[in-house]
Amino acid sequence: MKNKLRSQQWFWGANETGLLHQGALRAAGINMDNYHGQPIIGIANTWSQLNNCNMSLKLVAEDVKKGVIAAGGIPLEFPVISLGEELMKPSAMLYRNLLSIDVEENLRAYPIDGVVLLGNCDKTVPGLLMGAVSANFPTIQLNAGPKQVGIHKGQRLGSGTDLWKYWDELRIGKIDEKEWQDIGKALSCGFGACNTMGTASTMNGIMEALGMMPLGSSTMPVNCAERTQASIDAGKRIVAMVHEDLKPSDILTKGAFENAIRMLLALGGSTNAVIHLTAIAGRLNINLFPESFDTLGAQIPCVVDVQPSGTKLIDEFHEAGGMPGVLARIHDFLDLSVTTYTGQKLGDLITENIKADETIIKPLNEAICMPPTLAVLHGNLAPNGAIIKVAAASKDLLVHTGKAVVFENYDDMLDRIDDPNLEVEATSVLVLKNAGPKGVPGMPEWGMIPVPTKLQLLGVKDMVRISDSRMSGTSFGTVVLHVSPEAYLGGAIGLIQNGDSITLNVPDRKIQLNISDAELNKRQQAWIPTTPKHTRGYPSLYIKEVLQANEGCDFDFLKPKNAEELKFVEPIVGRS
Ligand code: FES
Fold first, then answer.
1. Residue from 50, 53, 82 whose mutation best tests the ligand 1 pocket (most atoms within 8 A of CB)
2. CATH for 38-147+191-349, options being 3.30.420.40, 3.40.50.720, 3.40.47.10, 3.40.50.2300
3. Which pTM was predicted?
């Protein structure tokens, strides 16, 4: 038994470091008199009062501890940086890689044998897993669930999606300031993730599809009996995983990632998942972008009737069968041979008894949106790719040519979008530059450029919009995102001028700036790089190291370059 587990290096032995290390845990309230080499389970918690979506994770952690103790392990909870989508600026995305470093380095430096990751809000979910994948310790991921549904004038409000809708109504005078404030209060309805198919719901569902999260758990309501039991069971299971040495690299194969992409498409999920899945897979030297997204995007329909692609909210989706119901619906497309955290194959878990209520989880031939629900675009405007969520776009704009109305950056867009003198028509193509990974930095969700008020008053609901930015999973519209390379690097999007003709052709997967190569070259020669705003601190490191959207916006130094760099380097466990 001696030194079988990595944590035992810290606590075995009567020398001065063994005594010191045991004393540190005694001081933390652990009875080390009973220590006989049990697995130490870390519980990485993104709880924070700065992140209301994650606040019930304290309760989840206590339940996980009960399960770990019942299975004979020692649970140790530790904090990691919490990424609150609503309050962090310019974007929680700026800190996703920092969270991954936080997790990886806690796992490296401390006596931990396996880890339960607790996240909920958008970026916490991929950030946690990226770190655990790099450490490659036995891992289970849990979330906290969706928030309650707020009611306004008898209408159930969808997080994000209804906010954007009522914001547009306020801008054109359809609702007044008092009603706007009432809506704000109704939307603030307690702890939990957005109750629509935003990035959090999408990413948590993807964790289920990847085999890293208990099936059916991600949509369970916050603080309910079934969630309590799922958390206790996960605590028991992680101890067994340590004994079995079942690691992320055993679970997260290319087949598992492609199942996760199928889940993303069937959900009509957030475009952010494209970046996150690319980054998580990148930590294992697995390439997904663009081929896997493009190929699968042409096969899998959106079958889930949840906002923003559909009409319902996550509580109704849960009752209809949740994520297991979706997997059952797309069963024939899945790689069922992949292993899950349970040790069982996915195919053993997707049984005929799984509920999939057809009123919300639609049959394939009655899908909400037929394929492609997501398309990868290329062309001289995006040589390294761009994406569009077809499920959230207007069908009549999927093949469109229009004249560019260019905003140099976010402030310029805010200043001029509602200017009555802005020269814009319903057929124009709105372009936002300098909103990419390095340009801001952090690639905020600015891609759903508002339709100018003067056009909204004429009844225009949607326009083609293009940026090197992202958009919220709760957003909608004919929005081309993640244009790569970004404007900050001299990408073609930064060279577009007002009045240039742009063509979007989704069936041909094309996004094209209709100028000659000679003219594009001339503009590239004349391009002047922007001086970075940050010359020190973490944002400066981010600007230097962050990769483009087509590589998942990971840091260059975090992505392994070869098989050797996939190996996790352990610390020397001696005197500190
Ligand atoms: Fe946290 Fe949506 S803002 S989950």
1. 53
2. 3.40.50.2300
3. 0.97
